[in-house]
Structures are given as C-alpha cells and as structure tokens.
Amino acid sequence: MTRDSIHAVIAKHLANAVEGLDPSTIDGTRTMKDYGANSLDIVEVVSASMRELKVKVPRSELNKLKNIDGLVDLLAGAAQSASQAASQPVASAAQ
C-alpha cells in the first residue's frame, strides 16, 4: 500500500463528504476543514478510510494531526505495522 493509494482513498471519502469537491484537487498540505468539512464529516472520512484500508489507529493519534498528509502518514504506518504482524509466524499452541 503506497502513500499515493492511501491519499486517493482519503480524497475519495472527503469528496463524498463535501459536496462539489473534486478528489483530484485535494492537497495533502491542507486540512479537511480547509475543504469545507465539518467535525462529523472528518470523523466519517477517517472512519471510512480506516475501514477501506483495514487499519485502526488510536484516537489519541488522530488528535495530533495537522493536515491530510499527517493522516496519510498515520494510516501508512498502521498498514505497515499490520502487514508486518500478519507476516510473522504464529507460535504453535501445542508446545
């Protein structure tokens, strides 16, 4: 999963939440509020993006974000951690 693919997922959900927004015009250095998203829109964008990407991040981490690129980085890190955990061998319970 690349940063670009994660950005595309976030942009798609942001465009769905904010009427008249073109996902291809979303700049990662700006905030969702810059694009007209309210608090409920932001929660929905983050939740939908996490569901689609199959990752979870703590709410405390979300509070630290400054812009869309920060969310991309956070979700990319969570995805990388999840894929590394999935690739670890499972210890046998029959030991």
What does this structure look like?
- The protein has 95 residues and is mainly alpha-helical.
- It has one domain: ACP-like (Non-ribosomal Peptide Synthetase Peptidyl Carrier Protein, Chain A, Orthogonal Bundle), CATH 1.10.1200.10.
- Helix content is 57%, strand content 0%.
What tags apply to this protein structure?
single chain, 95 residues, mainly alpha, Non-ribosomal Peptide Synthetase Peptidyl Carrier Protein, Chain A, 0% strand
CATH topology name = Non-ribosomal Peptide Synthetase Peptidyl Carrier Protein, Chain A
The figure for the number of domains is 1
Radius of gyration: 15 Å
SS strand fraction: under 5%
Detail the poorly predicted runs. none
Mean pLDDT: 91
String of helices and strands? HHHH
In short:
This protein has helices spanning 3-17, 39-53, 59-62, 68-87.
Layout of helices and strands:
Blueprint: H1 3-17, H2 39-53, H3 59-62, H4 68-87
